[in-house]
Design a protein that fits this description.
With 129 residues, the protein is α/β, with parallel strands linked by helices. The protein has helices spanning 12-24, 43-59, 71-82, 118-128; strands spanning 2-7, 28-29, 62-66, 86-91, 111-115.
């Protein structure tokens, strides 16, 4: 089972944690964008990263979105929805899913909303994979 993890830059440590545990449990990561975090990013770098992340989404069986997330992550979510990927939205609280904060697309049938600690959410992902 191949996976891709999308999230905001501030969650980069959590992205690496999810990836580490999932790989230890036999899943294969298609791409980890965290390796691209640096201070001197050019437009050419951004183009390259966008292509690599797009291909990773296409090559994945499941997409994991760690909330809260930013604009780029929601673009990735949109791509995953368009190509009908199984998507796990992971949050440590219900705050992201309450009616005042949610996004209508979170209610689509190929999205599984998970609320819990990272370890609880990772266990659910492994059990559903």
């Amino acid at each position: 089972m191949k996976f891709y993890i999308g999230s905001g830059l501030k969650n980069y440590k959590l992205v690496n944690y999810y990836a580490k545990i999932l790989k230890e449990n036999g899943l294969e990561e298609t791409y980890n964008w965290v390796k691209n975090i640096k201070n001197d990013i050019t437009k050419k770098d951004l183009e390259k990263y966008a292509e690599e992340e797009t291909q990773a989404i296409v090559n994945s069986d499941i997409i994991i979105i760690l909330l809260p997330a930013g604009r780029g992550t929601h673009v990735e979510l949109g791509m995953a929805l368009t190509i009908n990927k199984k998507i796990f939205l992971c949050s440590e609280t219900n705050e992201e899913f309450n009616i005042k904060n949610t996004v209508a697309f979170y209610e689509l049938p190929n999205i599984i909303k998970l609320v819990g600690t990272p370890d609880e959410n990772i266990k659910k992902i492994i059990n559903c994979s």
